[in-house]
Amino acid sequence: MRYEAPESLDQALALLAGAPGETRILAGGTDLLVQMRADVVDPDLIVDIKKIKETRTVTQESGGWRIGAAVTGAELKEHAQLKKIWPGVVEAANLIGSTQVQGRATLGGNLCNGSPAADSVPALIAAGALATIAGPRGRRDLPVEDVLLGPRKLALTKGEMIVSFLLPPRPPRSSDAYLRFIPRTEMDIAVVGAGVSLTLDAAGTITAARVSLGAVAPRVLLVAEAAAAIVGSRLDRPAQDRLEAAARAACNPIDDKRGTVEFRVQVAGVLARRAALIALDRARTQ
Ligand SMILES: Cc1cc2nc3c(=O)[nH]c(=O)nc-3n(C[C@H](O)[C@H](O)[C@H](O)COP(=O)(O)OP(=O)(O)OC[C@H]3O[C@@H](n4cnc5c(N)ncnc54)[C@H](O)[C@@H]3O)c2cc1C
């Protein structure tokens, strides 16, 4: 096995494009190294992207925020401005694993591991984040909801990698929240995850919203009907009921020992409602 740690994106892309056999990008390694030790994957080439500055920085861009794909959850938590504007994205990244795991785990790795239960993905989708992808044919931007196509199935083609995520500009009175259900207090895979981002007008009416659900379908869902159910409302009880119903209607979950279909569908509605209420509360003070 060959290990390379290029210091520029061009070098990384040349390595990814030119290598025969199986190639894997290494970010935090909290999924990849576990899978290698379990003999699930056996790469011929590992390209460590952590020395590439573009993947490791958080910068303001066109009124929004660009987060490098190899920025860790712990680093996001230390970023006071980002945490204030996108608390849901930051809290989702910091639900991943333990303190030690959060010091390694990245947004890019969480998305590209290809799990519909990945915690940061519903938060990024609710945020309206774009993934900036680089590859042999240049750069392209894809909405995060279009990157993960199914379990372990990504819209990336050979030689492509995610360089960063772009979070859009935030109007006043906007905020977000992410909640998940796990059978214990931490260190577990989401049975259901829900991300909500919303904007209020001066009277407290929701003018825009995005709702995303994880672990209830083969891919993380952007549930437009759930967002439509609360836009124009002040999230009063009837709007909450509509949100719950729309979230539940979107679910198509698996049935396993961690949650039955009925349980996941029920919890998806509850978490979507609770995440929306938290986002609403936060938006009032933004
Ligand atoms: C103890 C433990 C607890 C965990 N708990 C949680 C949890 O609560 N919630 C949760 O969601 N996950 C959890 N995970 C899984 C894991 O920590 C996360 O998915 C994490 O975000 C992966 O990021 P990473 O940087 O470590 O990825 P890596 O392991 O480096 O990479 C993961 C995959 O993505 C690919 N990849 C990485 N970066 C890129 C990129 N920029 N472009 C293209 N492909 C890329 C890699 O080739 C690899 O296939 C846990 C893992 C462990 C070991």
Notes on the structure:
The chain has 286 residues and is α+β, with helices and mostly antiparallel strands. Helices cover 34% and strands 25% of the residues. The chain has eleven helices and 14 strands. The strands form four sheets. The protein has a five-stranded antiparallel beta sheet with strand order 4-5-10-6-7. A four-stranded antiparallel beta sheet has the order 11-12-13-14, sandwiched between helices. The longest helix is centred in the C-terminal third of the chain and has 24 residues, at 261-284. It is globular. The N and C termini lie far apart (50 Å). The mean pLDDT is 97. The chain binds flavin-adenine dinucleotide (FAD). Flavin-adenine dinucleotide is lined by residues 24-32, 34, 49, 69, 95-97, 101, 104-106, 108-110, 112-113, 118-119, 161-162, 187.
Which features characterize this protein?
alpha+beta; five-stranded antiparallel sheet; 11 helices; 14 strands; globular; binds flavin-adenine dinucleotide
How far is it from the N-terminal to the C-terminal residue, by CA?
50 Å
What kind of sheet is the major sheet? 5 strands, antiparallel
* Uncertain segments: none
Chemical compounds bound to the protein:
flavin-adenine dinucleotide
Oligomer: single chain
Helical coverage, percent range: 25-40%
User: How do the strands line up in the largest sheet?
Assistant: 4-5-10-6-7
Shape: globular
**What Rg is obtained from the alpha carbons, in whole angstroms?**
19 Å
Report the order of strands and helices. EHEHEEEHHHHHHEEEEEEEEEHHH
% residues in beta strands: 25-35%
β-strand number: 14
pLDDT averaged over residues: 97
Which structural class is indicated by helix and strand composition?
Answer: alpha+beta
Tally of DSSP helical segments: 11
